[in-house]
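Running co-folding for nicotinamide-adenine-dinucleotide.
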Amino acid sequence: MAMKPPIRVAVTGAAGQIGYALLFRIASGAMFGADQPVILQLIEAPFEKAMKALEGVAMELDDCAFPLLKGIVQTDKPEVGFKDANWCLLIGAKPRGPGMERADLLKDNGKIFIGQGQIIDAVAAADARVAVVGNPANTNCMIAASQAKRLPAERFTAMVRLDQNRAQTQLAKKAGVDLTAVKDIFIYGNHSPSMFPSFAHATINGKPATSVITDTAWLQGPFCETVGKRGAAIIAARGASSAASAANALVDHVRSLVTPGAVHSIAVKSNGAYGFDANVWAGMPVRTTTPGSYEVITGYAMDDFAKSKLAATNKELVEERAFVADMIK
Ligand code: NAD
Ligand code: LMR
């Protein structure tokens, strides 16, 4: 197979849990394909412990002898890590501490994403794409994008693919079918319990999911709740937030974004579609057009139940934006 020239992939929080589950898959070709060499530009917080852990991860990457891995940069300086990056995967974020209010978390992380947004805009490659995972992912993405003067806002996306994957599995289990029978299940709104997994447009073996799963009360209640609160359930069970499944979802998010024709959920800048406030970053269905670019699929009709769910998740996104409004002016 003819090899392409290497692309540069910057990853923040590279020595964290998600980073550890992600980097080996990028280097093996799962994210960009078996003919796409990569240079990993790994960015950590400027602490000795974090940088030491990063050194260990880089040693392990070396020890895998991945043919596609053409270089590893280890740095605590974002201006070095984002330099000429074609993809910037923003995973590093401050976790919510005991007694910390959501508004405090938003402000603390806001500072990180303002700085990173400015530096990416200044030093990343002309074709740079940004995918945000660090929570609160939608609003962090909006904050980073707000700092960009060179890169268009559409290049900044946040991850709701984990929620889509969770929803797909829940529908398959309920219907007693293979996972691959479930299609067109999309996530709308915030990556938080308010998100809306829009079951009405999903199909199972080509039929409307609602004609296969006729228990509307389950779809509107336990299904939405299980998907929305899955992250918390994993924290309760594992004692730490989802990492392998989050890394897997980021592989899916980027892989779908570089695959023309792929139809999938990502959080993007709203232009008012589905009633989302303009300029919040909301999960919605998109179709990849050319590698890295997409169009929002706007044609899905929403019933009253869906409209109330969309309004609730939009309200939360608008509130999050209000918390950080003074930072993004
Ligand atoms: P983690 O604490 O294991 O790792 C985070 C890493 O980020 C740490 O190594 C830390 O040193 C680093 N970091 C912190 N600030 C940084 C900065 N300014 N620059 C570079 N690195 C920095 O956490 P994790 O389990 O890997 O999760 C990371 C984030 O992803 C969290 O915010 C978590 O809530 C979020 N998350 C999102 C989803 C999603 O679906 N969107 C799913 C799971 C987790
Ligand atoms: C998840 O959905 O698993 C995470 O976003 C949960 C969290 O708060 O880290």
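Result summary
The chain has two domains: 7-158, 161-323.
The mean pLDDT is 96.
Job closed.
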